[in-house]
Amino acid sequence: MAWRPFSKEEELKITNAVARAEDGTSGEIRVHIDRYCKSDPLLKAQNLFHHLKMDETELRNGVILYISIDDKQVAIYGDKGINEKVESDFWDTTLAKMTEQFKNEKMVEGIAAGLQEAGLRLKEHFPKADNDTNELSNEISYS
């Protein structure tokens, strides 16, 4: 059986938070959970971003929230469509909201808070168009 740190109910809370975060924006958000991160978490997020084909969205406005559970690493990586429009510290507030909850051992709440903040930030730069479709799965990916 594959490693799963969350119950079905917790996974549902996270996937519902992804859907809420994407509501009102054309941006696409994924959550990836690792047990360990043996390298730079931002580099790992970037590699996963490409492996999950998140760089194939029409507007290049995908975002991955990467969390390594056991060694408490977190990173956010956004595609070039986002990076061309935002300041370099764009994701700092999102990371801060997540880590605040993680420090209190509230992993699911931290992920949900990060997703909510990411969705708000994406809506500023990538409002949802009438013809927008959900290009990527809202499911959590694991490794």
Question: How would you briefly describe this protein structure?
Answer:
The chain is α/β, with parallel strands linked by helices and 143 residues long. It has 5 helices and 4 strands, in the order H-E-H-E-E-H-H-H-E.
Number of helices: 5
Q: What general outline do the C-alpha atoms trace? A: globular
Radius of gyration: 14 Å
Low-pLDDT regions: none
Widest sheet: strand order?
A: 3-2-1-4
Give the end-to-end Cα distance, rounded to a whole number of Å.
13 Å
Q: Could you state the order of secondary-structure elements as H and E?
A: HEHEEHHHE
Q: What is the residue-mean pLDDT, rounded to a whole number? A: 91
CATH topology: Diaminopimelate Epimerase, Chain A, domain 1
> What structural class do you assign from the helix and strand content?
alpha/beta
Strand residues, percent: 15-25%
Classify the helix fraction into a percent range: 40-55%
Give the count of structural domains. Answer: 1
Q: So, CATH architecture?
A: Roll
What would CATH call the class? Alpha Beta
The largest β sheet comes out as:
4 strands, mixed
How many beta-strand runs?
4
Question: What are the salient characteristics of this protein?
Answer:
143 residues, 5 helices, alpha/beta, globular, 15% strand, Diaminopimelate Epimerase, Chain A, domain 1, four-stranded mixed sheet
